[in-house]
Amino acid sequence: MLDVLILMATHNGARFLIDQFASIAAQSHTAWRLLISDDASTDHSRQVIDQFIRARPPGQVALLQGPGKGATKNFRSLLRRADLENSFLAFSDQDDVWDRDHLSRALDSLSRLSDPLAIYGCRMKICDESLKPVRLSALPSAPLGFRNALVQNMLSGNTMVLTPPAAHLLQRAERRTGPMPVHDWWAYQMITGAGGRAVLDPVPGILYRQHDSNVIGMGGLKRLPARIRRHLGGRYRSWAQQNSAALGVCADLLTPENRRSLDAFTKALSAPLPQKIAQLRRSGIYYQTRRDHLAFWLLVALGRF
Question: For residue 15, which of 43, 40, 38 has the smallest C-alpha distance?
């Protein structure tokens, strides 16, 4: 049976961990290992984790001390220290609940691909704090790929499962990469940039819990004003600069075509407006929806990208 290594970053998530641990324990695919990195929790997360470790077979669940520098660096620390062996790799948030067949669907989807370098994500049931469903996450309307990944994160980290070659590539790249906004966006960029496949399962496999402590969240219209302020304030451009630099140090791992796209995109970030537009067009970037496409070019026209 195919082995799956699950990486979970925790921080003050005690009130949610029991539900997520129960959903992992109930997976129809039973050949999994769980590596947890706790980021200096001050609630009783460590006690909940210790109880789960004791309840599972010896060695199936292990706990590490996190770097104490936020979720992205905690996940990166997990990836750096993980003993990947020949395992598939999954990321897990502390506050979600997985459907029973989440891992089995992911493995089936990845195993049917001809490309061994691949990353899987699935649609999510977005829920309130009590896990009452609110809506479904969006489906892509255009193919997933590197030129989309440069500007848009379409695979949510809490749904990601990677093939063993993709996991090893990501670990290799992480060890030489500088700052990045979020680990999942970078993972989507790296795997597709290296010529790998990205697939998004239209069948929901995750209950994505929304609450006041979400690091990212999908707050819809409620969070739209804050999102607009961040983008107009240059946050999106800053993220693009970090992503570009992170990919640049791993350019040798990318395909020649994707290196050319990255080069044009990177040049656009610091170019005057006419040259910026030309380089962005040369890069071939694209969005999933017309609304996002128009919003991006508005930021460019306003000098905010």
Answer: 43
Residue 262, domain member (yes or no): yes
Q: How many whole angstroms separate alpha carbon 121 and alpha carbon 109?
A: 10
Assess if residue 30 is contained within a domain. yes
Closest-CA residue to 276 (of 248, 292, 251, 297): 297
The answer to whether the CB of 96 falls within 8 A of the CB of 204 is no
The string of pLDDT tens digits covering residues 132-158 is 999 999 999 999 999 999 999 999 999
Residues 231 and 205 in one domain: no
Rounded to 5°, the CA angle 292-297-299 comes to: 95
In the DSSP assignment, the letter for residue 140 is P
Q: Can you give the residue range of the structural domain that contains 226?
A: 221-301
Helix axes 224-232, 235-248, angle to 10 degrees: 70
pLDDT tens digits, one per residue of 20-70: 999 999 999 999 999 999 999 999 999 999 999 999 999 999 999 999 999
Residue pair 102/26 in contact (Cβ under 8 Å)? The answer is: no
DSSP H or E stretch at residue 301 = helix 290-301
Token couple for 297: 């070019």
- Whether 214 is in a domain gets the answer no
* pTM of structure: 0.93
Largest CA distance in the chain: 61
Integer angstrom CA distances of residue 186 from 45, 55, 134, 157:
28, 34, 28, 10
For residue 272, count other CB atoms closer than 10 A to its CB. 8
| Closest CA relative to residue 146, chosen from 238, 233, 256, 273 | 256
Nearest to 25 by CA among 74, 98, 77: 98
